[in-house]
């Protein structure tokens, strides 16, 4: 066939998308034909192929206006139907001379190419949709991360002022009610600071490159862990915390991050255990590992909750006073992972124990 085209055919336009022209038909890619002058317009309506071997001998098309206008004798056009069933256009070809087109080989070949074109168009559309969706998701992720980071920064300033004011109030000669109010403010500011830290770390872990660590070859973990215990004792002054440390070897780790992990575990243990019970902390370092265990008495963690305990925004059965974002254990596990370590939990009716294990790394 001397001229072939992939045509986009709509209710009002015939547009050439691809052209193969050996007879100087004179139409370029992007060129248009008057829709009413084409047989493709009829195919758009009935969605069936049209094949003509010899126009002059074809009783249906011998006097048709299209062959008379464009001067062809042989013609084939098959519809291009997209995956969703929508009609896209046609794959059509003409020639001034008659041709043997009404056979399974030729019609099958044109139909196959029309299907391939439809498949290609569907793939291009899907790629465009996917790229657009990906771009939107990336923009949303960036905005979300920026929002959380800015929010965390803006929250810290007034929170620091509240915490400092509570500290100053606690040093004044207050009556019993004033002391109790100052303690509530101090405790709440401590909890809010933990929520902000967790929120920012969650944003970093999920929307950025993950929680990052900076190891120190001889980190003084014993000192850092004791500082965390002392800080939490100011929040829970009546609670009994038993500490057993045995650091025989220095630990190559990020002390600040491990202190954050430990603070989350210890705060959970104090929150979820009876007020008259003892929270037990053991930690040791050897030439091969660092191990930390925080154990407390209290209700056994249900099996269903155990399965999702380290997932973000997941919490077990809690009392009204123990509500929170549910990010502490997720972030603690991420810190453990960043150290190539593990954070495990065991829970019985008598005791719940969270255990951090970090293998030695030079």
From TrEMBL:
CDD domains: HisKA
InterPro entries: BphY/WalK/GraS-like (IPR050351), GAF (IPR003018), GAF-like_dom_sf (IPR029016), HATPase_C_sf (IPR036890), HATPase_dom (IPR003594), His_kinase_dom (IPR005467), HisK_dim/P_dom (IPR003661), HisK_dim/P_sf (IPR036097)
Histidine kinase domain: residues covered: 150-362
UniProt keyword terms in alphabetical order: ATP-binding, Kinase, Nucleotide-binding, Phosphoprotein, Transferase, Two-component regulatory system
EC class name: transferase
GO molecular-function terms, A-Z: kinase activity
Catalytic activity from the UniProt record: ATP + protein L-histidine = ADP + protein N-phospho-L-histidine
UniProt-listed Enzyme Commission number(s): 2.7.13.3
Protein name per Swiss-Prot or TrEMBL: histidine kinase
Organism: Pedobacter jeongneungensis
